[in-house]
Amino acid sequence: SFNYVLLSTSRSEQRLKEFGLRMTAGAGRLLIIRQILGETIFISLLALPFGISITELVLPYVSQPLFNKLLTINYIENWRFTLGLIIVTTIIGVGSGIYLAVRILSSNPVDILKRTTGTGSGKSFFTKALNIFQLTISIILIICTGTIYSQIKYFKSSDLGFKTSNVVSVNLIDEGVRKNYEIIKNKIKSSPKIENVTGSMWALPNGNTMTIGLPRVDDKSRIVNVEGLMVDYNFVNTVGLKLLEGRDFSEDMGSDAGNVIINRSAVEALGIDNPIGTKLAFGTIIGVVEDFHIHSFQKKIPPMLIQFNPQGVRTLLIKLSTADRASSIEFIKGIWNEFAVEKPFEYTFLSDSTDELYSEDSRFRKILMLFSGLTLFIALLGIFGMSMINAEKKTKEIGIRKVMGATPADILTKLSIEFVYLVSISIFLAFPVAYILMIKWLQNFEYHSNINLWIFTLAGLVSAVFVFLTVGYQVNRTANSNPVDTLKYE
């Protein structure tokens, strides 16, 4: 829309003489203004069906990877949406003709023909402001995309506090499987392909919570909320938690009923000096593990109480001992099918569960990548149009400079200086806005990386390089033209 308004405004000077002659011949100002606005609105409305057609062609290829579903538009049922398109298109048409209409309304025919009114500074400011606005949006989106990419990379490379490689999660949703949980667990554990097996209320990481209120050990009047997790034997070893002191739940020690393991945050939150052997409301502490991210990085690691309670198990966690995942999965599937009566075998690797937690952020990054690329491309189209118009206006000047000995490089430098200012102003405006936006976005996460300044530098360089390549192509073509042809221009 900005490009259309910008280029229409830049071209308006060529039509002023035509309308000046018509006004001299007796045409009324309002008649001419109606014609101008009628033409620009008609062209805009003519573009609307082409825009809708392109949308219908592109939408399936864009919506599926971004939203995992096919988005469709029903223009009749969603008549408000269709009406909104028409209104916006009409406004764009009015905007593209408004500059010329105002010039006609505020000038008399003689001044228009003599070109004595308006030095063009207002128009020049308007078109430059549009260019700056477009470039600013482009740079902001590039910075946001880079920052979000950096944050997602931080999530995936950070230590979660547990191991996700080769650990399979199987939801015990089948009634037959749940009844035979112990038999199935022992059968799976008997294979050399399996390193360890345990059970848990839910897989790691997860968005589920079970909050328990416990009194502090050093002050029984103060209640602390901790998160509970019911598990089976070998939970710590299977998922790779770091044991700071004590031991894991183990069959070798006899029954662990009435025993619990807590994390470092729980030790601090409950005011415990010597954890091992301390009795809590839900059992005796036999181990302390390092804090781990049971939830996403958006939430602070909570005080955790891991209770031995096989009756509360709803998920089977299996650590594979071989790199041959396919045969191991087939082995587990065979045992599942022996006992399942309702549900087919389904499994998830913990690494995939971790990626799923940040699927919304990954999708957001893809959307920003798409729109930052489109915005930069459209901004460059506008700048290309502006550079082409500027080069045409200065055709005679370029010819005289060449006759006087100026080289194409000198001319390129002279005519590009205006766009250096545009890019510089855009970068100056974009950086603080992008910084504030990303600071606010990062506040959604308890744990996050710092904003990298190289992303800002890269965004500015990318924008500047593309702008100079775009302007340079057009100016260089004019600068290398024959000065004889150039001076005969007009």
Task: Set down the secondary structure blueprint.
Layout (H helix, E strand, L loop, with lengths): L1 H10 L1 H12 L4 H39 L11 H28 L2 H6 L6 H37 L9 E5 L3 H5 L1 H9 L4 E7 L10 E5 L7 E9 L3 H5 L3 E4 L12 E5 H6 L9 E2 L2 E7 L14 E5 L6 E6 L4 H15 L8 E2 H8 L1 H35 L1 H9 L4 H35 L10 H27 L3 H5 L3
Parallel strand pairs: 4-9, 6-8
Antiparallel strand pairs: 1-10, 1-11, 2-10, 3-4, 5-8, 6-9, 7-8
Task: Briefly characterize the structure.
The chain is α+β, with helices and mostly antiparallel strands. Helix content is 59%, strand content 12%.
Describe this protein's structure.
The protein is an alpha+beta fold. Helix content is 59%, strand content 12%. It contains 17 helices and eleven strands. The protein has helices spanning 2-11, 13-24, 29-67, 79-106, 109-114, 121-157, 175-179, 181-189, 235-239, 264-269, 325-339, 350-357, 359-393, 395-403, 408-442, 453-479, 483-487; strands at 167-171, 194-200, 211-215, 223-231, 243-246, 259-263, 279-280, 283-289, 304-308, 315-320, 348-349. Strands 3, 4, 5, 6, 7, 8 and 9 form a seven-stranded mixed sheet that branches. The protein has a four-stranded antiparallel sheet with strand order 2-10-1-11. Helix 1 runs parallel beside helix 13 (359-393), helix 6 packs antiparallel against helix 13 and helix 15 packs antiparallel against helix 16. It starts with a helix and ends with a helix. The mean pLDDT is 82.
